[in-house]
Amino acid sequence: MAEKTNQEQKVTNVPPIPGRPVGGGAARFGGQVVKPKDFKRTIKRLWSYFGKERKLLAIVFIFVLFDSALILSAPYLIGKAVDAMSLGKTVNFELLHITIMTLAIAYLSNALLNFSQGWMMAGVAQRIVKRLRSHLFKKLQKLPVSFFDSRTHGEMMSRLTNDIDNVSNSISQSTTQLMSGSIVITGSLIMMIALSPILTLASLVTVPLVFLLTRTIARKTRVLFRNQQKELGTLNGQIEETISGLEVVKAFNYEEKAIAEFKEVNTRLCKVGTRAQIWAGFLMPIMNVINNLGFTIVAVVGGYLAVENMITIGVIASFITYSRQFVRPLNELANIFNILQSGVAGAERVFEILDEEEEPVDRPDAIPLVNPKGIVEFKNVSFGYRNDVPILKNVSFTSAAGSSTALIGPTGAGKTTIVNLLTRFYDVTDGQILIDGRDIREYTRDSLRTCFGIVLQDTYLFSGTIMENIKYSKPNATDEEVKAAARMANADLFINRLSNGYETKLSENGGNLSHGQKQLLAIARVIHSKPSLLILDEATSSIDTRTELQIQDALAKVMEDRTSFIIAHRLNTIRDVDTIMVIQNGEIAEKGNHDELIAQHGIYYQMISNQYKSLQEVEN
Q1: What is the DSSP letter of 4?
Q2: Torsions phi, psi of 409, nearest 5?
Q3: What pLDDT is attached to residue 8?
Q4: Residue 20: predicted pLDDT
Q5: Which residue, 97, 277, 418, 440, has most beta carbons within 10 Å?
Q6: Residue 281: pLDDT over 80
Q7: pLDDT at 259 over 50
Q8: Beta bridge pairs of residue 506
Q9: What's the mean pLDDT in 396-405?
Q10: Which stretch of 82-96, 245-259, 358-372 has the lowest confidence by average pLDDT?
Q11: Is 394 exposed, middle or buried (CB count within 10 Å of its CB: 0-12, 13-18, 19+)?
């Protein structure tokens, strides 16, 4: 619950409630590599998640060493095989057979080691990510409501999915390739120098060209891929809005305009995507030209050295392969480093959440709140979501056990803030809130919230069966207890009319039910939890009159002998409550029952008159 609608700021330009934090958008990893703020610190912290996997990682490193040794031995063996056929007029078949057999064993062993590395690193990455994801999800359950009020759901989902996936990809792809690539580059250079320092110098002529090409194309493609991701995000957002609001689109005959807008964005995406792919496609063909140029230089210089009997033909064959092994990992390492940076940046964003301050722990002497009478007292309570913008100002009132209290007033006056403080979603800035004469901070938070039943204006139902949704408050309850709660909530009738009754599967947020049916299920869920105190936040808004009567009847049953707080704008629903409090600018402007407030001819009287006048105008 929050002092705003539950749309969670899907439209970011909706003006916020004064003093309430506003959520920002989620950072994205697109064509541009997002660099971490503190690479070393994040790597060190991520390393702590390896735990038992470090032993397995050591085995992987040993496999990489053997694998790299085999990779480095293959060109040397190829050279020996060539020399075995070119040492004289006769072929040294014994040396050739030994070399070919050794080469075959090397390639088979290399394939086996590669498979083993991939198998082990996939398991390592998934287990690490599993722990990281579990810690993040567990952390989210412990964060205060204020944290979620300042961030969108999309941002949290991005960190649980996209950022975690980046970490997974980074661990599984980068770790072994970084180790292997570094060893192969170093080993290839050493072998090249050992075979022929002159050829080594000749082959390194093309290395600056490789770096220059990679840098030039990377600069161009970085901008293009960033623009591509931007246009893709715009397109995805437009698709989501159009599909979510399809009824509105059809109601206002906006289909053709929607198609035109989609076509415009889609065309922009097509153009920038084409350019990005063309530039990215330049890299490998030009790289092949440079590599072939390098091989030509090696062949020419090597041929001259062979004619001068300074090296053998086998050395030239080995050297060409080594030069290829030297250049190829350089390109791969640049890409791997980008993946690693994105992974570390993703881990950093996850760690930002893990470092957030959790809800304050219960006091050491906190006691459980069990079977409360329901006497609620606010003593000089002041509160603001920000220190510089107060929402409630010195609010004091008492609600007797089993009484009903209605909170009315304009949007942003502080109505929902009162129940947020009562349930300890937030703690008061000044003053005290007491239940049964004891400060609510002296109770354990879990036991306090267990005593409350809450029915929201926009109720939420989870994917699953109707039975599972009603059981959400008490998972171990029997089916008969669930059905009894549904009957009491007047939901049993429509449930039994469904094809599968209580086992009917609900779509996301109960999309296959009407708004009124969802409200009845929410009330059944609250009745099933048997709360001692009840909070109703616009529970009968936006529904038809017949369903409203059903809901009011159900609410009347659940409110019996329970201290209840009702937030309402439809004033005809609160005529019979014990106390009505008019909240205005964070203060109690008027207080009394319906007849008393009508007699005062004050704010409440004016609100009633305005609603009655509006109703008459509609009827006429």
Answers
A1: S
A2: 150, 175
A3: 34
A4: 44
A5: 418
A6: no
A7: yes
A8: 464
A9: 91
A10: 82-96
A11: middle
The pair of structure tokens assigned to 480 is 């008969």
CA distance 502 to 525: 13
- Domain 364-451+563-608: give its CATH superfamily: P-loop containing nucleotide triphosphate hydrolases (3.40.50.300)
Strand 392-399: give its sheet, edge to edge.
Answer: 392-399, 376-383, 430-435, 438-439
Quickly count: other Cβ atoms within 10 Å of residue 396's Cβ: 12
Q: How does DSSP assign 76-129, residue by residue?
A: HHHHHHHHHHHSSSS--HHHHHHHHHHHHHHHHHHHHHHHHHHHHHHHHHHHHH
Name the residue among 571, 610, 573 with its Cα closest to residue 582: 571
434 SS3 class: strand
Arch. (CATH architecture) of 35-195+343-356: Up-down Bundle (1.20)
Distance, in Å, from the CA atom of 311 to the CA atom of 90, rounded to the nearest integer, reads 20
Q: Give the total residue count for the chain.
A: 620
pLDDT of residue 43: 81
Alpha carbons 272 and 229: distance in angstroms, whole number: 10
Give the three-class secondary structure for 618: helix
Q: Where are the beta strands (DSSP E) in 466-555?
A: 505-506, 533-537
The SS3 assignment for 577 reads: coil
How many Å apart are CA 573 and CA 552, to the nearest integer? Answer: 8
Across the range 374-379, mean pLDDT stands at 92
- Contact residues for 329 (Cβ-Cβ < 8 A; gap 6+): 180, 181, 182, 184, 185
Query: b/e string for 473-499 if b means 16 or more Cβ within 10 A?
Result: beeebeeeebbbbbebbbbbebbeeee
Task: Say how far apart CA 431 and CA 396 lie, in whole Å.
Answer: 9
Q: Which residues, including other chains, have CB under 8 Å from residue 309's CB and lie 6 or more apart?
A: none
The 10 Å Cβ neighbour count of residue 236 is 11
pLDDT at residue 397 greater than cutoff 90: yes
The residues that bridge with 579 in the sheet, in sequence order, are: 405
Residue-wise pLDDT for 527-575, tens only, equals 888 888 888 887 665 555 666 676 777 777 778 788 989 888 777 778 8
| C-alpha closest to that of 136 among 358, 361, 351, 359 | 351
- Tokens 């399809």 belong to 246
pLDDT value of residue 581: 92
Distance between CA 248 and CA 100 in Å, rounded? Answer: 72
- In the chain, the amino acid numbered 342 is S
Predicted TM-score (pTM) of the model is 0.66
What gap in Å lies between CA 228 and CA 25, rounded to an integer?
Answer: 19
Structure tokens at 384: 């603001």
Counts of helices then strands in the chain (DSSP H, E): 21, 12
Q: CA gyration radius for the chain?
A: 35
Query: Using alpha carbons only, what angle is made at residue 495 by residues 493 and 496, rounded to the nearest 5 degrees?
Result: 70
Residue 613 has a CB neighbour count (10 Å cut-off) of: 10
Instruction: Using the structure block, give the residue that is written with the tokens 């369903």.
Output: 547
Dist CA 181 CA 174 (whole Å): 10
Tokens of 231: 């246009």
Residue 564 CA to residue 289 CA, distance in Å, equals 79
- 93-142 helix and 53-86 helix, angle to the nearest 10 degrees: 160
Mean pLDDT of the chain: 79
- Side chain identity at 115, as an amino acid letter? F
